[in-house]
Specification:
about 550 residues; alpha/beta; Beta-Lactamase; Alpha-Beta Plaits; eight-stranded mixed β-barrel; about 40% helix
Amino acid sequence: MGEHTFWHENEAYIDSVMNSVNMLAEDTYIYILNLKRNVAWFSETMKEYFGIRETYAADHYEIMRGLIYPDDLWEYEEGIPQRMQGENLDRELCIRMREASGECHMFSVHTDIVTDEKNGEAYLLILLRNENVLPRIDALTDLYSQARFRADLEKEIEKKETFAVLMIKLERFNNLNIIYGNEFTNQLLKETALQFIYMMDENSAVYRLDGPKFGFVLRKCSREELLAFEQKLREKLAKGIRVNNRQVKLKICAGAILIDQYDGQADSLSSKAAYALGHSETEQQGRMVIFNDKVRTSKNVDLELMKVIHQSVREGCDGFYVEYQPIVVSGTGRIVGAEALVRWRREPYGIVSPGMFIEWMETDPAMYELGNYVLRTALQETLGLLEVLPEFVLNVNVSARQMEREEFRAEVLRILDQTKFPASHLCLELTERCRDMPLDVIKREVEFFQGYGIRMAMDDYGTGSASSGIVLYAPMDEIKLDMSFIRGITGDAKKQAMVRSIVDFANSCGMSTCLEGVETEELQNYLRLYQATWFQGYYYSKPIEIGRLRELVQA
């Protein structure tokens, strides 16, 4: 099929324009279907990336079938014919496809129909966006993104010059989300970003990080200049940001690090600034904390040990392993699942409690690799349990560092495929820091994973107002009550009322509940009055390695 019969007229011009458009659209690939003739036109970039030989193809359907991951074929085969009929054009598809080298990536598929009434032609425009590639511009605020932040840190490190890294977080942002709604807070972030842009000069840059967090790189910056810049930020936000005729006064937490000829990694630098930010929020009531001032938490974190653990992740998660704590049916105590819990052991340190490093790691970009290691290891180790306990469900914690990365979707599906673990027997638990993410992002990710049969749970429910907002807005399958509600409940009327109301709420909404911290038979018998779905705690078992879990399941 030639150009003339596909485009009808102006063929060379249109062909050139479409290829130019596709060249400008980074990590995006276009092909077009002539609906009247049922012939496809593939752009040059798409041909090169996917290894397609023809520019025009009548067998386009078979060409695409050969590129799409087998488990996702049903979505393409169902979705594209609908769109050829003009249906669901505004809904994106998510499918995995293989590039020319054979590597698989997640793509979002966007469609629209253009008609040429004069010549009776209609074209279905299909745009494939590689979701595994992190964008350099934040789509909401138009600021530089977290990926650009990391890249710019690497460039600054290479210069061997003096600079400062500042991270801030808007306080009580999730409360605003609950009160005014997601549309309002999104606009608030846009207006806040605009104010930050006005403050920049040739030696400074601002970035949108995750949720209500922003990062700044301040070149040739002294301590005094850093303090003055941070104070200027506070004063500007304290005056208020105007959204929909409402003036919103904002407060911030702030963490920073001063750099002079730094020779480490960008991820390590970022995690130190994030650690200082966390310390500002939890220990200093929002006052800026500078990492260089030898920050220590109330738990007296050994920063040298954290450096070793961080390096362990970079070395293929050497020293890390997974233990499992059983989850049981509340009424019988019968094991029906387990929660995977990460551990670290290396000489001369011995076994290091996760309480000493998880909080730190959750501020470190390396948490993405560690979280994926735990998921893969846990799925591999527990797969055999399904043979003796077909209803077994594995709960795995996912961090904000994972949920905020666009490629995490494809990674989870890839791990499930490689381990042959059934998706319907996996439950992903959103950890505390996920609550800082925008509610619309959480809802979108929850619905995506549920679309593949994966269960979604809210961990440590009730420890913050944000957890209630998430459960109200996102379709969670399970609520896990924090053990602080369970400890001492038999003699505390307020805890009794709280637990009863949460369980009743979940039951009425079709959500399961798990009460954590069940440590005695007496407490178990008392908690059965609340009719929760599952129990978890030391009364049934402490966290154990896979061999011991297998023995308990088979007993």
